[in-house]
Design a protein that fits this description.
The protein is mostly helical. It folds into 4 domains: 17-109, MazG-like (Helix Hairpins, Orthogonal Bundle); 111-139, no CATH class; 157-224, MazG-like (Helix Hairpins); 227-283, no CATH class. Helix content is 68%, strand content 0%. It has helices at residues 21-31, 38-42, 45-65, 68-91, 97-110, 113-116, 124-139, 157-169, 178-198, 201-221, 226-252, 269-283. The radius of gyration is 25 Å and the shape is extended.
Length: 284
């Protein structure tokens, strides 16, 4: 007979102090037990990488939706990945969930001397400057780290590019004003045109990357997040194309389909553009 697992009951907001976290750890231990879940027991840190990224992105989507219930649910899914990875490490004798929590508590206390010690920091800029100093002190005698070493390679490409330019700008590797970054965009676009004319796919890819990087620099100079800007444009495109699809179904029943039943070309671009313009007009 299956054993039941008591589910923590909701608490009032004022009574919440993280006391249900051990229940999540206990649940994960149960799932990873020899008689637990076969799928969970097959997982490795490598197999969970994609889920960590997916859940983090779903948290961002929930935040953008403005729905607290969605944010709560997605944070739970992300928290599960943290506990899952910590439990896998505990089984290998490396560390466990308590080590994860202890380490971040120690780090936060250490890096907030203006809260937990006698130092003072009146602005967020002062806090960030002290934070970076403490990080450098923590490394101590370790191999000196490059300025860009702390930027995760797994970040979304636009965010990684803009973060990179922010880091190097702090040491003066930057244009004096936005006009320099704008000129760089023009320069890189011309080089991309040359690569396209030459027809070399590898060079086209390289020059396109240079152009995108230049655009993230331009975004930074104007106080804009390239990642957020492109996400918003993708959202607008999706909404407008949904209108196009609705109009196609209204007039034709559905998209034309090939022999395998997959949507294919068959409608004129002029007709589709007309529906697109309708969608744009509805926004104004």
């Amino acid at each position: 007979m299956a054993r039941s697992f008591p589910i923590p009951q909701p608490l009032s907001l004022g009574a919440q102090h993280g006391q249900t976290f051990p229940r999540l750890v206990e649940l994960m231990q149960r799932l990873l037990a020899p008689d637990g879940c076969p799928w969970d027991r097959e997982q490795t840190p490598e197999s969970l990488r994609k889920y960590v990224l997916e859940e983090a992105c779903e948290v961002i989507d929930a935040i953008d939706s403005g729905e607290p219930a969605a944010v709560c649910e997605e944070l739970g899914d992300l928290c599960l990945q943290v506990v899952f990875l910590a439990e896998l490490a505990r089984q290998r004798g490396e560390f466990g969930p308590d080590d994860v929590c202890r380490a971040i508590v120690e780090k936060l206390v250490r890096r907030h001397p203006h809260v937990f010690a006698e130092e003072r920091a009146e602005t967020s800029e002062a806090v960030l400057a002290r934070w970076e100093t403490i990080k450098a002190e923590e490394r101590g005698a370790e191999r000196p780290r490059g300025l860009l070493d702390g930027i995760p390679r797994a970040l979304p490409a636009l965010l990684r590019a803009q973060t990179t330019s922010e880091k190097v700008a702090k040491v003066g590797f930057d244009w004096r004003d936005p006009s320099g970054s704008r000129a760089k965009v023009t320069e890189e676009l011309a080089e991309l045109d040359e690569a396209i004319a030459g027809g070399d796919p590898a060079r086209i890819e390289s020059e396109l990357g240079d152009l995108l990087f230049a655009l993230t620099n331009l975004a930074r100079h104007h106080g804009v997040s390239a990642e957020v800007a492109l996400r918003a444009t993708s959202d607008r495109f999706r909404a407008r194309f949904s209108h196009v699809e609705a109009r196609v179904r209204e007039r034709h029943g559905d998209w034309p389909r090939d022999a395998r039943g997959k949507p294919t070309q068959g409608l004129t671009l002029e007709e589709l553009d007309g529906y697109w313009d309708e969608a744009k007009a509805r926004e104004s």
